[in-house]
Design brief:
The complex is a heterodimer of chains A (289) and B (278). With 289 residues, chain A is mainly alpha-helical. Chain A has 11 helices and no strands. The chains are: A mainly alpha (289), B alpha/beta (278). The structure holds adenosine-5'-triphosphate and magnesium ion (MG). Magnesium ion binds next to α1 of chain B.
Amino acid sequence: MSSKLAASALASRPMPVAGHGRSRRLPEVLQYVVLPLAVLLLWQVASEIGFVRRNILPPPSEVVLVWYDLITGSTDAAARYSGTWLGHAWASTWRVFVGFAWGASLGIIAGLLIGLSRVVERMLDPTLQVLRNIPVTAWVPLSLVFFGIGNAPAIFLIGLGAFFPAAINATHGVRQINITLYKAARMMGANERELLRRVILPGALPSILTGVRLSMGIAWVLVVVAEILAVRRGLGYLLNDAYLFYRNDIVIAAMLSIGLLGFASDRLVVLLRSALLTWNEKETFGGEH
Amino acid sequence: MGSISVRAVSKRFETGDVDVTALEAVDLQVRDQEFVTLVGASGCGKSTLLNLVAGFETPSSGEVLVDGAPVRGPGPDRGVVFQQTALFPWLTVEENIAFGLSLRANRGKGEVKPIVERLLERTGLAAFRTRRPAELSGGMRQRAAIASVLAIDPSTLLMDEPFGALDALTRSIMQDFLLELWEARRKTVVLVTHDIDEAIYLADRTIIMTAHPGRICEAIEVDLPRPRRYEMRSSAAFIRLRDHVTQIVRAEALKGTAPLGAPASPALVPSMTQSAQN
Ligand SMILES: Nc1ncnc2c1ncn2[C@@H]1O[C@H](COP(=O)(O)OP(=O)(O)OP(=O)(O)O)[C@@H](O)[C@H]1O
Ligand SMILES: [Mg+2]
C-alpha cells in the first residue's frame, strides 16, 4: 500500500527525458496556473453571490482595476492613492535591498568566522544564540528610540532580521565540509589562503546561499513591519494607511504587490544560486527538476 | 627519495577518561621504492600508523622519519589516497586532477596541462574529463582520486584501503592498474588493506599487525616475480604465502575472542570487574 503510494508519487514526477519537452509544455503550464485560477474564481464568485460583503473583501475584478489606477493614475479608482504605486514599491524595494545587503553580508562573515575558529565561536556564538531568540519585532521600540522615524530604523530592523539566517547557515556550511577534502588539500600542500578560497568557500557555498535566500524572505516580512510603524512611504505604509481609510481593495493590492516583489527577489536569489552552483543538487531528489 | 623510518613509535588517544593505546613500540623501515602492505584485524592501528607517516597525527613517543627528516605535518612529498575518495564535488575530473598542481607549494613541478592530459590518458578518464565526481562510477572515482595524487608526483604513496569500497571485479582491475602505474614510475608505497590476497599480490613485503595494543607481529617477504600477473594468484607460491598470512591474522584475531562454550565468558569478566571498581 505505502510502497504503491510512493511509486505513484515517483511516477508523477516528470523525469527529464530527452525529446519529451514539447508535448509536455502545455500540461505543465496548466499545472502552474490551476491553483491561482481556482482561488481567483472562488473569490470572485463568493463576492458576486454576496457570500462576503464587497467592502470587506472586494472581488478580484475590483482589486485589479484599483491596482491599475494605483500604478498608472489614469482612472482615479484609487482616489488619493492614484498613481502612487511606483514610489511606494521603490521605497520598499530599496529598503529591503539595503537592509538585506548589510545584514546578510555581515551575517555571512560572522558565520564563516564562527565556523572556522573555535575561539570566535566561544566569543560570538552564545551572544548570537540569545539575540537570535528575540523576535526582530521586539526590537521595534528600541530602534525607534535610537534611530527616530525614517529609513534608519527600517534598515536596521531588516538587516538584523537578515543577519541571523545568513550567519547560521554560513557556520553550518563550514561545519559540514567533508574533513577528507580538507585533509586532502592540506596533504597536497595548500596554504591557509588556498584552503579558504578553494576548499572552505566553495564547500560552504550551497549552505551560504540557502541562508541568503532565507534572509531575503525575512527582509520582506520586516519591511512591512517597519513601514507600518516608522515611515510615510512604502507598500507597508500604503497598506496600513488604506486600512485606516477602509480601502480594503487597496490593502489587497498592496498585499499582492508585496507578495509579487518578494517572489521576484526570491527568484533573483535562486537565479544567482543556479549560476554559482552547478554541482550541488546532482545527488538529491530535489535536484532533478 | 621516499624511505620511511618508524622508530619506537607509540600512539595513545585520550578519549574522555580512558586512554586508547592504538600503537605501541612500533618499528618499521620502508626502503625507497618499496611496495609495503599492512594487514591486520580491524582496530589494530593500521590507519593510525598511516596517519602518523602522512603527518595528520603526531606520535605520543618515538619518531617518524621520511628521508631521514622527522615528519612535521602533511606535505606533497607524501601523497595520501583515502578510503573515502577525496574529490572536490564542485570540480570536474580534469580540474580535480589539476588541483594539486595549481597550488603554490607545487609550482615548478611542471606544466599543468600536459601532466593532466597524461594522467587522464593513463587512467582512462579522458572521455569523462568534464564530468563531476557525482557522475562517475566508484571505480572511476577512485582512479580520478589516484590521478589527482599522482599529479603532484609524491615520492611516497600512502593508501588506506583504497579499493575497500569496490566490488571484487573492479577491485582486481584496480590492483593491476595500480601495479601498472607503479611499474612505470616506481614510488614508495604503503597500502593498508584487509584483503589478504590483495596484500600479497601487490607487495614486496606484507606487514601483519596485531591489536590491543597495535604492534607489528610479522613481516613477510613476498618473493613472487614482477611484474605480477593475475594468474599468479593460483600459483603454489602465492597460495602458500596466503595461507601463511591468513593463519597468523586469524590466530591473532581469535586471541581477542572468548573460547567457545565457556559458561562465564572470560572476555566479559575484566570489563565487568572494571565497571564494578568504578
Ligand atoms: N581519533 C581517535 N580518537 C580516539 N581513538 C582513536 C582515534 N583514532 C583511532 N582510535 C583508536 O585507535 C585504535 C586503532 O584505530 P585505527 O583506525 O588505526 O584502526 P585500523 O587498524 O585502521 O582499523 P580498521 O581496519 O577498522 O580501519 C582503535 O582502537 C581506535 O578506536
Ligand atoms: Mg582503518
